[in-house]
Amino acid sequence: MPNHKILTGPQTLMPNTETRFPEAHQDKFVVCGLGSLGQQIVINLKKFDYDPFEVHITAIDQQPIRNWEIDNLADQLAAEPILGDCRRETVLKAAGIEKSRAILIVTSNESTNVECAIAARRLNPNIQIILRSSRHSLNTLLARQLGKFVALDATELPAMSFALAGLGDDTVSVFNVGRHRFRVIERFVQAGEARFDQQPMQQLHQPRFRLLDLNPVENPPQPLGWATTASSVFHRWQPHVRIAAGDRIAYIEVDQPSEPMPRSNNPFFMAAQFIQFIDDIRTNDWQQRLKKLRKSSEESIERVVAVALLTAIVLWASGALLLKATVPGLAWVKAITLGAILLLGGYGDVFGGFDDPVTPGWVLLVCLMITLTSILVVLGVLGLVAERLLRSRFDFLQKQPRIPRSNHIVVVGLGRIGRKVTSLLVDLNQPLVAVDAQPRSQALFPQVPLLIGNVLEELTAANLATAKSIIAVTDDQMLNLE
């Protein structure tokens, strides 16, 4: 049997059953639409109902609910559902919109949802609005105009569940905060596992890792001090308890940046990037840095051309001013013309007409550097443009990615949900194969092998026998079962 060892340390004061809590705090929510999605929302909101925090839910629907999909769901509501049009201000006021924390608008009519969101914002400027809508352009506009607004497409909501199920591991959730991706994992500790077995919990809080919950296989000799307040739901342990084999733990960790850091044209930022590049060369990481710079250049060729043009103008002006200031009797028109000739590589043409005593040696050296710099910039831009043109012309010669032999995921159906699932799995760096009956462009997911044809026949070519999971998300339910 596993043993929980207690380290010597300061005791943690935890509330006991006799502790008096402050008066219960109510968080009020309004749910508009009690269809399948609305009922699931009510159930999941009530999971956050911990003493002394009470979740108060009021529902609105146009018709009486005769058949509840979830037993005893009506008991989870603060009152009987309000019958009426959720777009009307009188109905929203009857639901307590003015004192609610959030409103979740999930009716099946998207136009009704949008009108309800606008009415809710008029009645409560601070309320959080969660809207069911598949109109992405309109959602972006509403988010800017209304504020505290989140729009979700109901058809894409199951995509994350499908993707996580396809992983076949202990990942509970994956989400992004800013440019960072976080992963929540719940699993059992294995005997001899260096990362967790016999490790004190206070040492598991690291910059990229946080322990969320512990469910020990047996209670340790010293009570864990289980708390009953909502503020201690995620920390119901004493920090000196050691984790043992068989314990179930839940933790969150930083997976990886979900997108590259935005680049800047600030000269200090560019100088820092150059210093980082030199350091990468010293640490033998220069190849990876070159790949990143190349990818960045390919994605922003317009910016590269603009910087090259600005550099040429600066070099032109510098050369013209330098020649005007150092060559006696040189007119401005002649100086500007000679500056342009320097940019075009005509160093010999410019100084071939002067005697040696006329032009100082340092001027010759500076003009030579201007010419060399100009040639390098022109060659770099021309090379980048030529590579882009050649790549766009010869994309048809690229071979389709290889189909993994084993331990991969097979996604059947590239409809709306299938594309979302595939995109999530690609972001999670999972090997996968996509199968669909309808012709699809390979450019949709260039790095994913795509098989087109009879779905059941193509599963053999997708190495289904050695795959770790299959995700069937076609529009044909019977085909999914087959």
UniProtKB/TrEMBL annotation:
Domain RCK N-terminal, chain residue ranges per copy: 26-156
TM segment ranges: 304-323, 330-350, 362-386
Swiss-Prot/TrEMBL keywords: Membrane, Transmembrane, Transmembrane helix
InterPro entries cross-referenced by the UniProt entry: NAD(P)-bd_dom_sf, RCK_N, Trk_Ktr_HKT_K-transport
Superkingdom as given in the UniProt entry: Bacteria
Record-given protein name: RCK N-terminal domain-containing protein
GO biological process per UniProt: potassium ion transport
